[in-house]
Design a protein that fits this description.
Largest interface: A-B, 40 and 58 residues
Distance between the termini of chain A: 129 Å
Strand content of chain A: under 5%
Number of strands of chain B: 1
Oligomer: heterodimer
Helix content of chain A: over 70%
Shape of chain A: rod-shaped
Largest sheet of chain A: none
Order of helices and strands of chain B: HHHHEHHHH
Strand content of chain B: under 5%
Number of strands of chain A: 1
């Protein structure tokens, strides 16, 4: 014989006098036994969201994730820090080029001072004269 | 369905693992909380499709907040119940409460999960749960939420107060009024629901 808690206490009373706790306990118990289960489809959707959010969190900041744009250069670009870093590298490259083309002008005074030479014209002039001489000799030959 | 391989890992530790990109933690959290969130959403909404949408949105908010989760501030379940309640309230307001008054549709009736029950007992339990859900659907939102949290989800009054952002006295008042209304709504249905045939 099935037994539902609260039956004995309830049936001796008028409906309006029934104890709230006891008459509702039966229904609450039924509600706890009966559930609205999470379907497989819902579980799959939730899991898909979870992995998508994890992927978003893992993407480097400032680099929008765009499908199909992955490769060595894209990765290198991202690893170096994106466009701000590229601008800095460009500036450094131009500065290096300029320094590379004008070493003598910058070094001249310091070298001359160290060697005790009074005027840069002397040194520069000697080189220039020698160059002219060789050039003329080559022409003559 | 895969088992929760992190069954012994506390909720907050799982969230930290999730935030660090742990895929197994994502799976464990999904299996641990989605059924809880779904069941609560259904009890507040009485509609399976809407409850599924609310459950998915609630879990999405959990995924997004995981990296910023502050340990020790609130239980994960408390936070989830609150989000479910907020989202359910929005939906109830949009559709207009008490529009049909016929209880949940047949497809929405919850399914008993106790495998030890006979077919007859399962049907009877389902009918009782259905009757309760129909009566719950007619309660004011706050009363329904308080009653569900206290008497079906089994939370204590202090935790309910935290979920609903009210005092414990207010929780007691809401549950008392809610139960009085439920009792009145269900009193006349005990015979038809099998309480008188033993």
């Amino acid at each position: 014989m099935r037994h539902w808690p609260g039956d004995e206490t309830n049936w001796g009373m008028g409906m309006t006098e029934m104890n709230d706790k006891h008459d509702l306990d039966d229904f609450f118990q039924a509600a706890q036994s009966a559930q609205a289960p999470a379907s497989e489809a819902l579980m799959a959707r939730v899991m898909q969201d979870a992995l998508a959010v994890q992927a978003e969190n893992a993407a480097p900041a400032g680099v929008p994730s765009r499908g199909g744009r992955t490769g060595v250069f894209t990765g290198l670009f991202a690893a170096l820090g994106g466009w701000p870093a590229m601008a800095g590298l460009g500036t450094a490259a131009v500065a290096g080029l300029w320094i590379g083309f004008s070493p003598a002008l910058g070094l001249g005074d310091a070298v001359n001072t160290a060697l005790g030479v009074q005027s840069t014209d002397t040194l520069f002039g000697d080189y220039a004269t020698g160059y002219d001489f060789a050039f003329e000799e080559g022409d003559a030959g | 369905m895969p088992l929760d391989t992190h069954a012994d890992v506390p909720d907050e530790a799982l969230l930290t693992l999730f935030a660090n990109g742990d895929g197994a933690a994502a799976q464990a959290l999904t299996h641990r909380f989605t059924p809880v969130v779904m069941a609560h959403a259904f009890r507040l909404l009485g509609d399976r499709a809407e409850a599924e949408d609310v459950a998915q949105e609630t879990m999405l908010r959990l995924w997004k907040i995981a990296p910023e989760w502050r340990r020790g501030e609130a239980k994960v379940t408390t936070w989830l119940y609150r989000v479910v309640a907020n989202l359910a309230t929005d939906r109830l307001r949009k559709r207009g409460r008490g529009a049909d008054g016929h209880g949940p549709a047949l497809d929405d009736v919850p399914e008993p999960v106790d495998g030890a029950m006979s077919a007859e007992e399962r049907l009877q339990t389902q009918a009782r749960a259905d009757a309760l859900q129909g009566a719950l659907d007619k309660l004011p939102e706050r009363q329904r939420q308080a009653v569900v949290l206290r008497h079906i989800e089994g939370l204590g009054n202090p935790e309910i107060a935290e979920v609903m952002a009210i005092s414990t006295e207010a929780v007691e008042s809401l549950t008392a009024r809610g139960k009085r209304s439920l009792s009145a709504a269900l009193a006349g249905r005990r015979d038809e629901l099998g309480y008188g045939d033993d």
